[in-house]
Design a protein that fits this description.
It is built from four helices and nine strands, in the order αβαββββαβαβββ. It is of the alpha/beta class. The chain has two domains: 129 residues, 3-Layer(aba) Sandwich (Alpha/beta knot), CATH 3.40.1280.10; 31 residues, no CATH class. α1 runs parallel beside α4. The protein is globular, with a radius of gyration of 20 Å. The C terminus is likely disordered.
């Protein structure tokens, strides 16, 4: 159940691939709880052990572990190119896996939570950081304006340039 839910969440949040390390054969099958059929949309890698993991160049491994020396998720700046590893429920990441991690983060909870829920929380936090959403307002309710792009060139919507969250009429030359 958890594996299918985690795959579906990864698919929904726009993951580029999904993987397991030393997973039981029963877990590696596409579970019924994955109602989006993620296995048909995301590459899936089943590595037999930590040493066999082959991630894209520059991809940083982020371990999710409830430990005192991990960085609290709300204070963590996600790498652009990252693979997230979560340990088994009622278990922890192995020492071999922790030694491969570039970062170790924790979700600040009083005790371990469901692995699928933990994965979804981390992916939500990542999309909040990179998604280009408006900042949270001080008062309850939604944002008043979208943020100005600080990444890349100008923003366009429907062929019209956007500035400060408002459409600007495109100047067209008359024949």
């Amino acid at each position: 159940m958890n594996f299918g839910n985690l795959m579906r969440s990864a698919h929904a949040f726009g993951a580029s691939f999904f993987f397991t390390v030393d997973a039981d054969a029963a877990i590696r099958r596409s579970p019924l709880s994955d109602t989006s059929r993620s296995i048909d949309h995301l590459p899936y890698y089943a590595w037999p052990d930590v040493a066999s993991m082959a991630l894209p160049k520059g991809c940083q491994i982020v371990g999710v572990e409830l430990s005192d020396d991990a960085v609290d998720l709300p204070s963590f700046s996600h790498p652009r190119c990252a693979a997230y590893v979560l340990g088994p429920e009622r278990g922890s990441l192995s020492e071999a896996m922790l030694s491969r991690c570039d970062h170790v983060i924790r979700i600040p909870t009083a005790f371990c939570i469901n692995v699928a829920t933990a994965g979804a929380i981390v992916m939500y936090d990542r999309i909040r950081m990179f998604g280009g959403f408006a900042g949270r307002p001080v008062r309850p309710g939604g944002p008043v304006e979208m943020p100005v792009s600080t990444f890349g060139g100008p923003l366009y919507s429907g062929g019209e340039k956007i500035r400060d969250g408002k459409k600007r009429a495109a100047k067209r030359s008359q024949p």
